[in-house]
Description:
12 strands, 2 domains, five-stranded antiparallel β-sheet, Immunoglobulin-like, mainly beta, 44% strand
Amino acid sequence: MKRRFLLVVVLVGGAVGFTALGCEFMFSYRSLTAPLGASGEVGIRVVKTHANCTLPNPYDYQLSARGVQVLGETSWTEVQPNVIEKWVLISLAEVGDGYLKVSKTCTKEGYEEGLLPITVTAPAPDGVWAQAWNGTYPFTLPEGYAVASVVGTAVVKDGVVVLEGRTFALPSVPAGMASS
């Protein structure tokens, strides 16, 4: 009798545990700690743990953030059956504790969310952020760093890029980019 009762408890508990979660959210990091202004990509995976998803759109997941600015994101892509993935480009925007959150509300499982804890530390007192904040421009880029992106209309001529009145020397100009 005891064995039968234990078997029923295990089966019922297993069934309840199996249906209790509709999605499992995973991030490419367990947590992040970096200085203000740091940027990078974070991967988000959603593993759908039940076969019959009730979301009207199978990619209807919301992103929200605190202390973090979302600069861009990819579309959701199915990387294997019942597993979708998205990459988000973020910039750490406010000193303190923050997060990146993915969530969904479905008719079957209700509200669920995954949270990536993010701690944004103060920038170095003599670093580029402090120089920019104090109005020092142009400032010297630290050794070993490269400009990753710029905004505006660029003109390439004679081995230099002119952008918004600023001149950037190029080591070489790729053929097809040189203007006359």
